[in-house]
Amino acid sequence: MTNNEIAAKGQEYVLNNYGRFPIAPVKGKGSYLWDANGKQYLDFVGGIAVCILGHCHDELIRVLQEQSRQLWHVSNLYWIKPQVDLAEKLINNSGLGKVFFCNSGAEANEAAIKLARKYFYRRKEEQRNEIIVFNDSFHGRTLGTLAATGQEKYRLGFAPLPAGFRYADFNNLPSVEQLINENTCAIMVEPVQGEGGIKPAEPNFLRGLRKICDREGILLICDEVQSGMGRTGKLFAYQTYGVLPDIVTMAKGLGGGMPIGTMIASDKAASGFAPGDHACTFGGNPLSTAVGNQVMDIVTGEGFLDRVNDLGKYLVGALQGIKDSRIINIRGRGLMLGIEFDSDIKELVNICMQKGLLVLGAGNRVLRLVPPLNINETEINQAVNIIKEALKDW
After folding, report:
1. Does 214 lie in the same domain as 76?
2. What is the pLDDT of residue 216?
3. 312 plus 340 within the same structural domain
């Protein structure tokens, strides 16, 4: 089937809730994808920061095949060895205490919201149920995580949403201080806002949030669904700031393409949950956690994150060599970068795709670049050259 044939069939049978590009990828290897028409693309989307080791990584294929011959699913009624092994690795590398497994970032953030509230409920402080979140944030598509998301365009049409969220301005500590009251139980923040435009937290801002939480006896939740798993050059972006949250959520890159999410909590915060308080049927299943273990081993291996930092600097340097008056700013951390333009970049994304580079937006004016973490300089040069050529036609 061709791209057009697959698209026509999809339009007939698949719910129309995505704005899809007119291609149908059917094969991937490393940093490249091929569509149903046989056209090759350099992939700087990676399933939206998911395929952090590229497509069809040989080691991940090997682990997946081995596990698929042993056990797929038993549920969390029982102990699952690869899940326990992955939890150990996450704890040893995060500085926290306990892990909950689920399937996605939205589920991980739902778990964090519930844990923060249940923690204070168990302390007989049930009035503490409000969470401070931030304008331009994005935490997921469930009703709870939509309510926590500080972008009206995502919430429109889904009222009434769950209550208990108050919105401060990102990188603005006074706006947070104004919202603190006797009902506050937590502050929830992305160390690097993703959908909000690839905006890193300023060091004094994230450190200031930690100080506020310590002073008020409330919990700090870091949403690392997009920025985690080495994307910013550290395993977790909060490690860049020298800050330890009480709860951190992660998904996307943890499975290298397999669906998996996790909430990691300090022992203190984790005490908020008891058996029966929260669950996930498929969370931490043998297949996803077996692959997650291998992803963790690769990303935490000697020199890998140093290489991510070096590649991030190399990509920024190459992008800075693009001389175009429409570029306002290049920002981000590691290999989570955004190019801000002075106008809507939707057509630029399309032109890049036509020329063989897959990129996406983060908001209307920011071109988001989230390539595999094991990309090389040759592929970076290829991507930057395509962007240069695309700008000529934009």
Report:
1. yes
2. 97
3. yes
Name the residue type at position 33. Answer: L
How many percent of the chain have pLDDT more than 90? Answer: 100
Mean pLDDT (whole number) for 249-263:
97
Say yes or no: 223 and 341 in one domain.
Answer: no
Q: What is the mean pLDDT of the chain?
A: 97
Same domain, 281 and 329: no
**Together in a domain, 346 and 283:** no
pLDDT tens track for 137-181? 999 999 999 999 999 999 999 999 999 999 999 999 999 999 999
Give residue 335's pLDDT: 98
Strand partners, 189: 222
- What is the CATH classification number for the domain harbouring 348? 3.90.1150.10
Q: Is residue 388 part of a domain?
A: no
Residue 19 lies in a domain: no
C-alpha closest to that of 221 among 291, 145, 163: 145
User: 3-class DSSP state for residue 336?
Assistant: strand
Q: Say what the pLDDT of residue 61 is.
A: 98
pLDDT band of 250, cuts 50, 70, 90: very high
Q: What is the CATH number of the domain that holds 123?
A: 3.40.640.10
93 and 248 Cβ atoms separated by less than 8 Å? no
Single out the residue of 235, 225, 192 nearest to residue 331, CA to CA.
Answer: 192
Helices and strands (DSSP H and E) totals, the chain: 14, 17
**Residue linked to tokens 């095949």:** 65
pLDDT at 386: 98
Both 295 and 316 in one domain: the answer is no
Residue 2 lies in a domain: no
**HEC profile for 119-173?**
HHHHCCCCCCCEEEEEECCCCCCCHHHHHHCECHHHHCCCCCCCCCEEEECCCCH
φ and ψ at residue 306, rounded to 5 degrees:
-60, -40
CB neighbour list of residue 331: distance below 8 Å, 6 or more residues apart: 198, 199, 200, 337, 338, 340
Domain assignment present for residue 17? The answer is no
Q: Which helix (DSSP H) or strand (DSSP E) does residue 114 occupy?
A: helix 105-122
Mean pLDDT of 14-30: 96
What is the extent of the structural domain holding 86?
A: 60-299
* Of 266, 184, 255, 186, nearest in space to 225 by CA: 255
pTM equals: 0.96
